[in-house]
Known about the structure:
heterodimer; A: 401 residues; alpha+beta; MetI-like fold; 2 domains; 6-stranded antiparallel beta sheet; 15 helices; 62% helix; B: 300 residues; mainly alpha
Amino acid sequence: MSEPLLSKTQGGDPWKARIDRVFARALVLPLFLALALLSWLLLDTLYRSFSVQVVRSDVGLSQTFPLGTAWQEALRAALLQEGYTEEEAEAMLKDSKELRALLNQNRVELMWNTHEGPLRYVVTGSYDERVLDLPLLQGLRRWEELKAGLGEGERLVLNPWLDQTFFTRFPSRNPLIAGMGVAVVGTVWVLTLALLIAIPVGVGTAILLEEYLREGRLNRILEVNLRNLAGVPSIVYGLLGLAFFVREMGFGPTILAAALTLALLGIPVITVTAREALRAVPESQRQAAFALGATRRQVVFRVVLPAALPGVVTGVILSAARLIGEAAPLLLVGAAAYVPFYPSGPLSEYTVIPVQIYLWVSQPQPEFARVAAAGILVMLLVLSGLYLAALYLRNRFRREW
Amino acid sequence: MELLRQAPSRNPKEVLTFALLVLLGAVTLLTTLGVVLSLLGEVVEFFRRVPLTEFLFAPEWTPLFAEPRYGIAPLIAGTLLVTVIALTVAIPLGLALAIYISELAPHRVRARVMGILELFEGIPTVVLGYFALLTVTPFLQKFIPGLQIFNPLSAGLVMGFAIIPYVSNVAADAMQSVPRAIREAAYALGARPYEVALRVVFPAAISGIIAAIILATSRAIGETMIVAIAAGQRPTLTLDPRETIATMTSFIVQAATGDQPAGSTASLALFAVGATLFLMTLGLNILAQYVVERYRERYE
């Protein structure tokens, strides 16, 4: 890429010079629009992930617990309040199966502020009901008024929807206790398997195209095919996955079917980036290796590939970031299911983060928008982590030949 | 800089490596074959039950009703409506950015702008759909009376921003490949930078720019999550951007997340719509390649 030929000292028509300045400014406008939109999105999502709530508990548990309390203590107190005896509560907390069931239905979370003071633990049960859900500022303005008006068994909390238990909670029909634990584990499973398939195929195809067949009929066919594959909408891959992996191969709506579908989607992307990385290795490196008597395999795998590795890895990370956000194809291969347990292997049912977000967004209760906002924050955090890693690799290992 | 063609090696390790790589490369070919075959089987079965004329000309798309109609026109109309709105945003903004990146931006700034675009491209579309439905629509409802909660307008606007990078990257590449000598000649004749950009570089790169627009159109047609979330799932034959509509992609999502038994006509309809979508995007991609090949200005 060349430096632009901009000369500032041109004379001539002052009108033209003026047009020029306006022109230059107008061209940058879209960038600022895009940035403004991006900031709007982020701030809005962040704001939506907090709310001031009045929640009513059927068993009348409006009690909150101070910061020092272990969550077991809070849970025990909640159980006592519900009418269990001291021994029964103790036994339930000791039994791991019982405890898991308990944690499925009750959420112990740290609220930023409550009617009993700031930073206290609150136990939310699956039958707890929201009485009021106000946006942050409005809720804070009316805090005292709401506090005064609390009824029996009602509590007032400033709820940060994205808190530490959000990552481990299971999906739920009650937005108060819904979490994305299952979706996080599902995403890790699906993405890992998909990359295990897509990386060898994508990088292998790139090596084939760049190092073995630089021209010829096979090269042309593969290249045209790849270009067209990259242009196929991702949802069509979902249809392929549904017809072939889910039904034909009989995998059903499982992690395996999802991983294979996602792998097919990732292969063209990885191939393109890997080819670019291979192409950046100068011809002289190959010639030097050949001159030393290396075979083509040795040249490719001991000289070219190691030199291109940082570029390849960067490309893989960026492709992974792209794949994490894919919801459409996975909706077709079973990710939309309600899965109230952690996946145990490639053949278990699953859901993934973006699909979970889609399901939350399409729920009618308005609090699910807050749950979705919390989910989106998690996903954007993960993605920024991946982008930073890619950026770091790109800069750290950049080589000038 | 082609290396000397080596005689094919007989060393088994070499042959094996090559065979393995060809095998991996074949996976990509098999994928295409898989897409075509998996669509074809179900589509043939669909058209055995629903006549082609019904599919093409019936004015309603109601496969989930008791008395189903299978006219794809409302879905195509919905898709085109969203696509046109998205392109109205993406073409001017994307081309402006492309000119900036290719002609005006200093080297450092250019890298930064490309980085921002890459970031923009990386936002999951489900996030953009959420944004369109929960933020943009309520905002627009203040100004536009009669705007439904689910509407193609906000879906299209947000999608427009999402496809800006596709327009600007391809178009900027095309402008970059216009030789520097042509710009220098124009400057030598006393042209201002805006004249060089608009009247010299732009026309010279027009084939690439048209290809960029076609590719962005193909993207917009295939875009799924934004429309599935924000544009609604009610097939309506309308051009009013305030009405709830459905697109081909949003129907596929709707049908896939419901539970029609495999083999029912409604579930086959999924594949018929998918095949239509596939053919449209494939056609556009091929058209884009043709335009680039056919109308490219060649410089020696």
